[in-house]
Amino acid sequence: MTAVNSLNCMEGRGYVKHEHLISQMSLDEKCGLLSGLDMWRTKAIERLNIPRVWLSDGPGGLRKQTGAADHLGLNASYPATCWPAASTIANSWDPALAERVGGLLGEEAKAMRVNMVLGPGLNIKRSALCGRNFEYFSEDPFLAGKLAARVVLGVQSAGVSACVKHFAGNNQELNRMHCDSVIDERALREIYLTNFEIAVREGRPKALMSSYNPVNGVYANENEWLLRTVLRDEWGFEGAVVSDWGGSNDHAAGVLAGSNLEMPHTGGDSDRQLKQAVLDGRVSEEVLDERVGELLDLILSVQIPADAPAAFSFEDHHAAARYAAEQSIVLLKNDDNILPMVPGVKAAIIGGFAEKPHYQGAGSSNVNPTRLDSVLDLLDGFDIKSAGFAKGFRRKGQEDAALKGEAVRLAGSAEIALLFLGLPEIYETEGLDRPHAELPRNQTDLLEAVYAVNNNVVVILSAGGYVEMPWIDKCKGLVFAGLGGQAGAGAVLDVLTGRANPSGKLSETYPLAYGDAPVSAYFPGRERTAEYRESIYVGYRYFDKVRAGVRFPFGFGLSYTVFEYSDLKADSKTVTFTVANTGGAAGAETAQVYIGLPGARVFRPEKELKGFAKVFLEPGEHRRVTIPLDETAFRYYNVKSGRWNIEPGSYSVMVGASSRDIRLAASVVVDSSGWENPYSPDTLPSYYTGRVHAVPDAEFEALLGHKPPEGLWGEPQTALRPQTAFRPQTALRPLTVNDTFSSLATVKSPVGRLVHYILKRSADKNAETPDLNALFRYHAPFRALAKMTGGAVTMEMAEALPNLLGGHFWRGLGGLIRGWFRKFRFDHPGLTQFLVFFAVSNGVTLLQLALMPLFKALLGLTPLVDTAFRAGRVGRNFDGSPFFIFDYAAGELGTGGGGGLAYFLAVQLTIALAQVANFFLQRKVTFQSNGKILRAVCWYALAYAVITIGAATAQGLYKAPVYAFLIGAWGAVGETAADVATMLINSAISFWVFFPIFRLIFRRKDEA
Q1: What are the beta bridge partners of residue 150?
Q2: Is the separation of the CB atoms in 940 and 998 below 8 Å?
Q3: Active site includes 244?
Q4: What's the pLDDT score for residue 68?
């Protein structure tokens, strides 16, 4: 894999979209279009009728904010349908359902005038502890890609854009803006890119979001190999690439690599950097035009007609959300057929989730639901005799004997105990990984106590993914509700009472314990890198390879009926078989097709999902099912040849109800030409056996083809000298702008350690309810200050922080001050020019006054000239000229007159007014090169001449102008004419002196 960029003015790749528009755009407008207007909108160019686009979060429902914008889902948003989370929808294994949900989500976006929905998220569930897993579909790239593609088709059927995310290798929240995902190319291709490939090829999304993290050393948003070679050239992506919020590390490098839109806005800082890169030749204008054309194609294709409906049916969408949740519920255990419940059964309702459901994850996907159902609110509509309700436990994990005792007493009085358990909301959130895979101890203690008095226990579990279940023998029934969205409570009751037959299947493997998964040894990457040493062995690919026991296998799910499989026929193109419902209830079965190659010479999993179909059958009904295969069903990525290959052999085609419940199997012989084995079992023994819990350094290096980068910020302290806030581990190298504030733990600088101590204390302040903003600040890289503060901090200022906090305080402080002044100059060009001119002109004046006796002595001034100087008044010649100022001290200061002071203030006010006028004028007109400076000078000259001459004439301040010596005899021209000529010459000479100074101070290229 080649994942290397260079800012060396790469050539464009041909066709430029919307060239007729681009040809009319200035360089400023092109650069400006490629970054946001604010947190959620792009810029408009009104003179060319280019509208702006509104982007909103949307994986689980639309989050269009009502007021102050943020990227963590903390502030309020407009009401919208909260759909089941992607992790829950995935358990439906139903592409048609995914497309329907996407279509209704797109309809809501259109009604709210949102042009782009930031979703779906389809990163692989590499580890069960990733805090954002609830937003993602599966551990399997085939299932994730197929479902995401259909969501995209649904959203875009409404005329708006979907934006699949986060591309790529984004599988942890800790240090997500900095941590380098070190992945071997085969695993990257087969596991972490195949999901996106399917979504792009089949869904044709108009936009794709790059991830925060580097991938093999290159930030995803500026990774040319990812964004151009793979995404555009191989997969045919024709849309726009949007950075994750604050995920643009280097805007110019991103544009060069294939990124189109940096979000959010940076107050013009990124625009100026990109413009400078174009003017310097680092980015060719041809490449810039390509990026602009691709973005314009998106902008113009997602405009919402003014007469489009501005409302949607809350009730219809709520009903659709309930159906989606019902289809996604997984029945994991049903001993003694305890479910569905007997009508009229006396049930104890226990657990706070029955009263206040855990229905969605936290962070940017947080939705303000149009309505929120709870089990307690809906209970009267079902044939259940309630024995009462007890909370049973505190939601955040604290022990409470009184709540527990109340629940146990209630359970003892009922025929069945419905126990609603789940993960606390803070365990499933953007920006924070889960600390472990367990339910809170107070919940499992409650379960054991309830089971002791009533063994007819049904657990209804609310979570975005896997939890450890050592307590499973303490319940007869287990219903995995997932995160069911705003209508999930009704869906749960439908399943419990038999109104609906559960048909969900797990989209991830449930190991006996989290530590059984090999990724547990490598997750998360805590400092510089995240090493994917398990390679392709993710989820069931590992467990089935090594024959390890699991709690529930991938694809598992029970039903209230029974399905049988028969009559398999298979070849390299299709798999056909029969599914029959032999039970007594109507229901749906998801049949799964797996492909394996016994005796493979290339290391590979025992089986891989390559097809599936969800089939609804009435009792006694059977159906012939055909699932297509293509060349991708048998492929693997050959890192030696750099392309997909097929190893020849007799492949096993397996059809089953889960990865561990194979009902039918057949063999298919597949030939291949030009095949070669890129691996040797002698150098990669762990990967050939699948035992990848503890891959040695040398073996991982052989797999990568190079030495992995250093993963630590510093050398850990010994036990005898432990690390503390003020005794850090030793830094391995100097800090950079891409290091995080948390890495300040490694610096020796007292200033840096103090900042680290403050941020760490804030991040750890409340362990039960973490402050997401504080956590974001602590784990954010220094560059985030430039990318997430709306221009309050520039990249130049952010680049000074590693020096300031890392041990070079004065160098860093100097860089910070220089960056601030440069930012001030860009933000306030008119005011800056005035302040500099004011300081320079008055500095020259004061210098002249101080040196006046020396000048007089050197010039040998005659009594006549000296008399003329003394006869002048201060205002007469106070124009900033270095030649005719001496009379300030010789005349006015010597006599104590007040007229000169009034005139001095009038002149300075004139300058200020001129600069203010220039400042506002610049907001209306775009000037090239040093046009702003030239216009400022012209304004100053005109205002100086007109106002000063008018004031001088009206107030009679000019009694003996010294320029009479230059323009002729005093009496020959008259006093008024002499005054006018004096002012014009004074202005001309002043600008002749000061204009080079202006050019020296303000010399710069066009501002973006």
Answers
A1: none
A2: no
A3: yes
A4: 60
